[in-house]
Amino acid sequence: MSKETKLEINKHIANLIEYAVLEMDLDKYDAIFAHNTLLDLFKLDTPSTPSKKLPEFQTGIIDPIVDYAIKNNLCDENERIIFETKVMGIVTPPTSVVINNFDSIAATNGIQSATDYLLNISVKSNYIRTVDIDKNIKWEAKGKYGDLVVTINLSKPEKDNKQVALARSLPQTGYPKCVICLENLGFPGNLAKNARQTLRVIPLLLNDEEWFLQFSPYVYFDNHCLAISEKHTPMEINEKTFIRLCDFVEMFPHYFIGSNSDLPIVGGSILSHEHYQGGSKVLPMLNRPARKVFSSHRYENVKISVLDWYNSVIKLSSMNRTQLQNAANAILINWRNYTDKSVDIHAKTGDTPHNTITTIASWDDELGYELYLILRNNRTDEKHPYGIFHPTEDMHNIKKEGIGLIEAMGVFILPGRLDKEMKMIKDILTGKEKINFAAIAKDEHPLSKHLGMIAQLTNDYGTDLDEESAEKHIETYINTTCEKILNCTAVFKNDEKGQKAFAKFLATVGITE
After folding, report:
1. How far is CA 330 from the centre of its chain?
2. Are 379 and 388 in contact (CB under 8 A)?
3. How confident is the model over 335-379, as pLDDT tens digits?
């Protein structure tokens, strides 16, 4: 190693420490400790001083440090993000310090300032990698029952075959039990599990149970956060859910919080660990008006409505928290056992339950506590092997995965593969690539899943479009499909028959127009 190279890495490390002090409020004593830890990691004897003007963080500070580590065999290219996270974990303020700072800021400047602080730490530490998230493609789509947000997720890099093979060869320790367990705090990571040395959490009490708050590293919407149980117990929707959600919005009135359903197909991607998702009140469903207003003698202080939205949503609002929670619990209990064969709703097949809810809470200064209950059913049959209230197979080229909380509220997270596939379809619509339906129909063709989409677009618009028109028609097709997907998830369809059946169900809980 040349003297000049040692000088360069020493300067980069000094710049990183200065960055942490300026951008993450790293305490001067912790800064000295972190600096010495990095000197030891890179086998350096004495520290350097930072540049008078700090370079840009990603390309001017952290990337050169990781490049040096790879060049000097401290890690290999496949471990780039793992090593970066290790280095950033060293300079990120310790969890106990973050918790104390959070509490102090909340006490003096308010809870929103405190969550802003935690978010800033999460971004500046690269726990939330904005350099990757900014690659996501995002647009808004106008729809019949409300606007949608469509995102093509490019922030999760695809692993190449070598990385997949290496990950498969690693011993399966079962630790941490899942990707959101508290034990991920400081976890060093490997090619199979993400490094989490930069993760910082805030302890919470929800229903007098130990939970914790953290931000999602994937940021599917503004201030995307998670409230997670300290216990690794399965997702379950019951009366405690409503208590916890209301507890949360009491503490964080500037956020919404929601629970995915507790059944496969209609639930989230993690059913094994109790957790909720929340953040800024920007999801489209939260802005929708009532379609019909209802009332109940049992819950006189609760305003009840069916939301003018794609899927089947009951909105409850009240300043009387107890009455609100009781109304929500009564609806849940009735729905669990509700069958209406006229609209294909069956509560159970044998002992297997099908009815559940996705539930969301927020606070409104005028209306008080708000609970949104999205009625869900995960039954399958021969005609609908993926779910009767799930997108049909002709839509799977756009979205095949379960429709969880975020999509149900109007934000679609579509797979990154669509970026490349949309460009290939655009080349067909503009005539750059000659269309060959026989070739596309073969399973090995990268556009085989889009055969129906291509057939429809070429039939409607031909193959001589300019690029802007081609992009517009592809986007419109995707927007329309997202609308159809949400309509599929409605257990009570948005037609006269469906809405009458919806009112009939509400009547079983003493709720009438």
Report:
1. 29
2. yes
3. 999 999 999 999 999 999 999 999 999 999 999 999 999 999 999
Let me know the angle formed at the C-alpha of 402 by 485 and 498, rounded to the nearest 5 degrees: 45
Structure token digits, residue 232: 């690794």
**Residue 338 near residue 314 (C-beta atoms within 8 A):** no
At 307-320, the pLDDT tens digits run: 999 999 999 999 99
**pLDDT score of 69 more than 80:** yes
CA distance linking residue 125 with residue 119, whole number of Å? 10
Q: How far apart are CA 221 and CA 215, in angstroms?
A: 11
On the CB side of 30, how many CA atoms lie within 13 Å of its CA? Answer: 16
What is the Cα–Cα distance from 190 to 167, expressed in whole angstroms? 8
137-141: strand order across its sheet: 137-141, 148-152, 411-414
- What's residue 312's pLDDT? 98
Say if residue 504's pLDDT is above 70: yes
Residue 349 pairs in a beta bridge with 352
Q: Are 332 and 342 in contact (CB under 8 A)?
A: no
Q: Does 157 score more than 80 pLDDT?
A: no
Mean pLDDT of 184-212: 96
132: how many CB neighbours lie within 10 A of its CB? 17
The yes-or-no verdict on residue 77 having pLDDT over 60 is yes
**In this structure, which long-range contacts are made by residues 473-478, counting pairs with CB atoms below 8 Å and at least 24 apart in sequence?**
473/429, 474/422, 474/425, 474/426, 474/429, 475/139, 475/141, 475/150, 477/453, 478/141, 478/150, 478/398, 478/414, 478/418
Pairwise CA distance, residues 47 & 26, whole Å: 17
pLDDT, position 168: 54
- State the pLDDT confidence band at 4, using cuts at 50, 70 and 90: low
Angle at 143 between CA 138 and CA 145, to 5 degrees: 125
Between the alpha carbon of residue 302 and those of residues 135, 239, 314, 363, 375, the distances in Å are: 43, 17, 12, 14, 19
**Could you tell me the sign of the dihedral formed by the alpha carbons of 430, 436, 437, 440, in that order?**
negative
Counting every residue written for the chain, the total comes to 513
- Taking the C-alpha atoms of residue 77 and residue 54, their distance in angstroms, rounded to an integer, is 26
| 3-class DSSP state of 67 | helix
Q: At 215, is the secondary structure helix, strand, or coil?
A: strand
| pLDDT exceeds 60 at position 163 | no
Q: Quote the CA–CA distance of 419 and 72 in Å, as a whole number.
A: 36
484-488's contacts with Cβ under 8 Å and 24+ in sequence apart are: 484/391, 484/395, 485/391, 485/395, 485/398, 485/399, 485/403, 485/407, 485/412, 486/148, 486/310, 486/311, 486/403, 486/407, 486/408, 486/410, 487/310, 487/311, 488/389, 488/390, 488/391, 488/392, 488/395
What is the rounded CA–CA span in Å between residue 372 and residue 362?
9
> What 8-state DSSP symbol labels residue 73?
T
Q: Which residues pair with 304 in a beta bridge?
A: 294, 316
